[in-house]
Specification:
Ptyr_pPase_sf; Ptyr_pPase; alpha/beta; 5 helices; arsenical resistance; Rossmann fold; about 15% strand; four-stranded parallel beta sheet
């Protein structure tokens, strides 16, 4: 029996780093078993360091675009993952029946303190969390 894909929505403030990384890993590991989107409360540009650290692990997100939260996608999701602390007060209320996951991953792109090392640390943390999330949703992950 074929299950319908799980709809996962990764949210952050600007959709330029953490939520983009999470979306890329979820697509990479979840394949056709997931429909994955990411967005921010504000749209920004995908940060060049984000593109760079993902290229290091063989995932090209150079053509990704930063998006604002879309309420249609929001309410159609099975799982909403909030990647940052700041979303707590500002995010729309997650409707009953949708899993609400909070990761609170440190922003590696604090203005004036951006470093590729910090973005790599965030990338690796997000990768582990995405794999755990997919496993928890019974999504088959390739070895």
């Amino acid at each position: 029996m074929h299950k319908a894909p799980v709809n996962i929505y990764f949210l952050c403030i600007q959709n330029r780093c953490r939520s983009q990384i999470a979306e890329a890993f979820a697509k990479e590991y979840g394949g056709s078993n997931v429909n994955v989107h990411s967005a921010g409360l504000e749209a920004s540009d995908v940060h060049p360091l984000t593109v760079e650290v993902m290229r290091e692990v063989g995932i090209d997100i150079a053509s990704n675009v930063s998006k604002r939260i879309d309420m249609k996608t929001f309410v159609a999701s099975n799982v909403i993952v909030k990647l940052c602390e700041q979303l707590k007060e500002r995010c729309p209320i997650v409707p009953f029946g949708i899993a609400n996951v909070e990761w609170n991953i440190e922003d590696p792109l604090v203005p004036g303190k951006e470093s590729i090392e910090a973005v790599r640390v965030a990338r690796d943390e997000i990768k582990d969390k995405v794999i755990d999330l997919l496993r928890g949703l019974n999504v088959p992950i390739p070895d």
